[in-house]
Specification:
The complex is a heterodimer of chains A (113) and B (372). Chain A is mostly helical and 113 residues long. Chain A has 4 helices and no strands. The chains are: A mainly alpha (113), B mainly alpha (372).
């Protein structure tokens, strides 16, 4: 892998900070090998390949997969919060369901875009 | 995002005649993955349309990250992406809520807020592996290319056609060329052969019927393949000699047999010469025969001089080979044995035996071949 250090470095950050960050990154990337993201590697590679992403390193693929998973999880948790808020206001005796999807999604999507 | 589907009805996925969407496999897989993530978040049930939308969003996010990181890598003069390219791309595409330190420019990328958040997420969230094992996709198939002119060892018909282009199709594919009709003639000969064989069968059947009609149950014995002359002779012992089955050549041995009889010529039966040849062979049944009357019933055809030049009177083209037995060696020396009847069936066996018989004959008496 190609570790390129960016040139403009603030003087506050000492070498140890750099090393910490680097260490954190390397450690994180190493931990990614054990962690299996929910989005499978094959799917991620397929869509990254479609957009021109070229990398043989599995860790980077996993990184992208994890980032996407985080994104989706955040969207879902927001939707869940919306849903629960509505349920609390409507007070219906129903299970935890995702209802009125289109409305929810419009609100979410507008906030994203 | 149903761009490729003609039917945009909400249940388009469940209609049986649905046109396949592009990247359907990828979409389905992403649907499953997103559903798993949502389940981990806390949802219990989903609307399929909502799930589809979320899966599409996830795929788009993925593609955006790829595009951005590729562009950063290209900007730096590389073709392969870096971890920093990815982090920068993540910051660009980012969460819709932003991240810590986004406003700070010039920070070390390694200390990016985005990355930190991702790390936190990995630490906090429980690992949910994908539900199904996936093959590597997309699957590439070997394409069978049309061979080029050089591969087919053909020269292009005109100068303007380069040799590395695919070869032109064979002329028989687009116009009528003269056919090679050996097959047709073979068919004709096959038909002729079949007709001939059928005629043979019919003839032998007729013959059998005639014999049965003439001689009754005793006549069946003469037409059986397996009997040899001596056996037949034995069978005829019990019956009335006048209604005995006709004797084949060499079947019966005349007790008062000598050369002088033959020399006397036409007055005597012509088959005496034959009997002489079969003397040793039929000695066992000689005493049982007392009657010469039946001798010449069938033996006119076997008019043979003593010397042994076989005059072949063949009224059938095939020869009865199965009937030959221990007398065969003697028979072959001096005469051809015409076939008087044949049980139908076993034509192939008969042909084989005929071939063997011919071989034997040719080996034992080359003279006879000239007369055949």
């Amino acid at each position: 892998m190609n570790y390129q250090h960016p040139q403009p470095q603030p003087p506050q950050q000492s070498g140890e900070g750099k090393h910490d960050d680097d260490a954190a990154v390397t450690e994180f990337l190493a931990s990614l090998l054990e962690y299996t993201p929910t989005i499978p590697d094959e799917l991620v590679e397929h869509y990254l390949g479609k957009s021109g992403f070229q990398c043989p390193d599995v860790r980077l693929i996993r990184l992208v997969a994890v980032a996407t998973q985080k994104f989706v999880a955040e969207v879902a948790s927001d939707a869940l919060q919306h849903c629960k808020a509505r349920q609390a206001s409507i007070v219906k005796d129903k299970g935890n369901k995702q209802q009125k999807v289109s409305a929810l999604y419009c609100s979410l999507l507008t906030s994203i875009i | 995002m149903n761009n490729g589907v003609a039917n945009t009805h909400w249940d388009s996925e469940h209609s049986p005649t649905r046109r396949p969407i592009a990247n359907e496999f990828g979409r389905t897989v992403s649907r499953v993955a997103v559903a798993q993530i949502c389940e981990g978040v806390g949802f219990e049930s989903f609307r399929s349309s909502a799930l589809d939308s979320l899966a599409d969003i996830a795929v788009r996010y993925l593609c955006d990250i790829g595009k951005a990181s590729t562009s950063y890598a290209n900007l730096a003069g590389r073709t392969e992406c870096n971890v920093f390219d990815i982090i920068t791309a993540l910051e660009d595409v980012g969460n819709f809520q932003g991240f810590m330190g986004a406003s700070e420019v010039g920070d070390c990328i390694a200390s990016s807020g985005m990355l930190r958040e991702t790390i936190e997420y990995v630490d906090i969230s429980e690992e949910i592996p994908f539900a199904y094992p996936l093959p590597w996709f997309p699957v590439y198939r070997e394409r069978r290319l049309i061979p080029s002119f050089s591969q087919m060892d053909e020269t292009p018909p005109a100068d303007h056609i380069p040799y590395w282009l695919p070869a032109l199709p064979d002329p028989h594919t687009y116009k009528q060329t003269p056919t090679w009709n050996e097959r047709k003639s073979k068919q004709q000969t096959d038909n002729l052969e079949q007709v001939r064989q059928r005629r043979k069968v019919e003839r032998s059947l007729l013959n059998l019927q005639q014999r049965l009609a003439i001689f009754g149950p005793a006549g069946a014995a003469t037409s059986s393949f397996a009997t040899n002359e001596s056996v037949r002779g034995i069978q005829s012992v019990q019956g009335n000699p006048f209604v005995d089955p006709p004797l084949q050549a060499g079947e019966k041995d005349v007790p008062a047999f000598n050369m002088s009889d033959m020399v006397k010529g036409p007055g005597k039966d012509n088959d005496i010469s034959v009997f002489k040849m079969f003397g040793p062979a039929v000695e066992a049944v000689r005493d049982q025969f007392s009657d010469d009357a039946d001798k010449d019933v069938n033996d006119e055809s076997k008019a043979l001089p003593f010397k042994g030049h076989a005059i072949h009177f063949k009224f059938k083209s095939s020869k009865k080979v199965l009937g030959h037995s221990m007398d065969l060696g003697l028979l072959n020396r001096h005469m051809e044995k015409p076939v008087s009847g044949r049980v139908p069936g076993d034509e192939r066996d008969e042909k084989k035996r005929r071939a063997e018989y011919i071989l034997r004959q040719s080996m034992e008496n080359p003279q006879e071949l000239t007369q055949m």
